[in-house]
Amino acid sequence: MAHASGKRLAVRSSYVNEQLDLKEAAARHKVSYATALRWKAKAASEGDNWDTSRNSLLLAQGGKKELINQVLERFFTQSENIFKSIDEAENLSPAAKVDLIAKWTDSVSKIQKLLGPSNDFNKIGFSLELLQKLGTFIREHYPQHAHAFIEILEPFGQVLSRDYG
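Now predict its structure.
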């Protein structure tokens, strides 16, 4: 189904100016997510990168720290989805779940290193790196306790978030 060019501009505006997720922007304007993705890709091929515009606007409005905070907020929102998927996966063994969590914490450590030492992310980055090492240690030396580790990790993550996040 063909859409008026005004719809494409409205989706772009919601994504860039209102900072909505692309799925949310598409839904708001009654356009399929696939169509919004196609419009975004076509615009990028024509030199209009919606992500660059979105991030530039964030940078202009709130400075670098605000942009970093927005990126981190999105990262942790997606992380919640990842943990929910891991938790609900019935076909994964506890050791496989620990392995996936260790990979996630490795990503967090890399982000922390990229942001450098002078940011608010330092303490939580260190904490997550420590949890990654603990998860690896448990997986290698005490695999029978992997399930207990996973059970404890979620509520402990809330403590870390409260104290450092």
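The chain has a mean pLDDT of 77.
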